[in-house]
Design brief:
The protein has four helices and three strands. The protein is α/β, with parallel strands linked by helices.
C-alpha cells in the first residue's frame, strides 16, 4: 500500500525551529503540504515559516512548549482556525475543556 499524498494535507511539526523538525518542515513544504510549525523559539519559527513559504507552502508558526498542556490546546485551536475555519477553532477549544473534566 502506498502512503497517502502529502500535497494539500495539513502537517503539524513540533520542534520545527531547528534540527530534524526544521528539515522535516522543509521536506513537507517541497511536497506541497500545509504546515503548522511549533517550537518554543518564536524567532526561529518565523525563519522556518519563511523558508517553507519560499518553497511554495502555506505555513503558520505557533510558539508552543509541548510540556505545557494549555499551550498545546492553543496549538490545536490555531491549527483548526487556520486550516478549517473559526468554527473548528472553537470546537478545538471545547474538546480541550472536555478532556480536563474527565476523571
Amino acid at each position: 500500500m502506498s502512503p497517502p499524498p502529502v500535497r494539500g494535507s495539513v502537517v503539524v511539526i513540533t520542534g520545527a525551529s531547528s534540527g530534524i523538525g526544521r528539515a522535516a518542515a522543509a521536506t513537507f513544504a517541497r511536497e506541497g503540504a500545509n504546515l503548522v510549525l511549533a517550537a518554543r523559539d518564536a524567532g526561529a519559527l518565523a525563519d522556518a515559516v519563511a523558508q517553507c513559504e519560499a518553497e511554495g507552502a502555506r505555513a503558520i508558526a505557533v510558539p508552543t512548549d509541548v510540556a505545557d498542556g494549555e499551550a498545546v490546546e492553543r496549538l490545536a485551536g490555531e491549527l483548526a482556525c487556520a486550516f478549517f475555519g473559526a468554527a473548528a477553532g472553537g470546537m478545538a477549544g471545547l474538546i480541550g475543556q472536555t478532556k480536563r473534566l474527565e476523571p
